[in-house]
Amino acid sequence: MSFRASVLTLYPEMFPGALGLSLAGRALEAGVWSLEAVQIRDFATDRHRTVDDTPAGGGAGMVMRADILAKAIDHAAPQGDPRPLLLMSPRGRPLTQARVRELAAGPGAVILCGRFEGVDQRVIEARGLEEVSIGDFILSGGEPAALVLLDAVVRLLPGVMGNDASGDEESFENGLLEHPHYTRPQEFEGRPIPDVLISGNHAKIAAWRREQALKLTQERRPDLLSGREQAASGKKNAPEA
């Protein structure tokens, strides 16, 4: 069974976008995964196809209505659909490579793209939406975030990457940032490829790559190392079965 993605959006023309190209595009064409873009306005009840209203309690902007969104969600994911319901939101839990792998191992995802000031909290609660963030910044809508999430997931689906081992040493896969890469020419503007990488000694190459990964992670993302230490401490202190 292929991975099924349903995206609920006010701008279905944004999909597949970049997902129709390169690895994701070839996999989409081959049926490894499928993509359905659902126009939220199709579930509006007035002739203007209104999907938002003023915020309760006052304030700037508009809020997406719970009743309209509920209809769109129920259409895309009828009762019994096993796919997780996601809402792209700056207040959501940060998307991690571990969560990406979980999604890639599942049947797909239903992704709601918010707009305006946000989404009525009641539909989030009533439909059990999982709020997901791709970073500590604000976008004009959830569509670019949905594209990012799907790109991260689709590349991990079986057969999408030519060599399934290609992702094993990438950043975040082992809790570290990825080591530096080099290729020909052997010297570029006075900068040679490190000798160890052309030594043919695979043990030394592996050790060098790990050392570089640790160094980069310490410099740029020390929080990742703290997370590794906490995980290791938890395992060490876990009671024996």
From TrEMBL:
EC number, as in UniProt: 2.1.1.228
GO biological process: tRNA N1-guanine methylation
Keyword match Transmembrane helix: no
Binding locations of S-adenosyl-L-methionine: G114, I134, G135, D136, F137, I138, L139
GO CC, any one term: cytosol
GO molecular function annotation: tRNA (guanine(37)-N1)-methyltransferase activity
Compartment(s) where it occurs, according to its Swiss-Prot or TrEMBL record: Cytoplasm
Family matches, as InterPro entries: Alpha/beta_knot_MTases, tRNA_m1G_MeTrfase_C_sf, tRNA_m1G_MeTrfase_TrmD, tRNA_m1G_MTases_N, tRNA_MeTrfase_TRMD/TRM10
Spans annotated as Disordered: 218-241
Residue ranges of every copy of the tRNA methyltransferase TRMD/TRM10-type domain listed in the record: 4-225
One Pfam family here: tRNA_m1G_MT
Keyword terms: Cytoplasm, Methyltransferase, S-adenosyl-L-methionine, Transferase, tRNA processing
Reaction equation(s) it catalyzes: guanosine(37) in tRNA + S-adenosyl-L-methionine = N(1)-methylguanosine(37) in tRNA + S-adenosyl-L-homocysteine + H(+)
Keyword tRNA processing part of the UniProt annotation: yes
Function, in words: Specifically methylates guanosine-37 in various tRNAs.
HAMAP family: TrmD
UniProt subunit comment: Homodimer.
Family: Belongs to the RNA methyltransferase TrmD family.
Protein name: tRNA (guanine-N(1)-)-methyltransferase
Source organism of this protein record: Borborobacter arsenicus
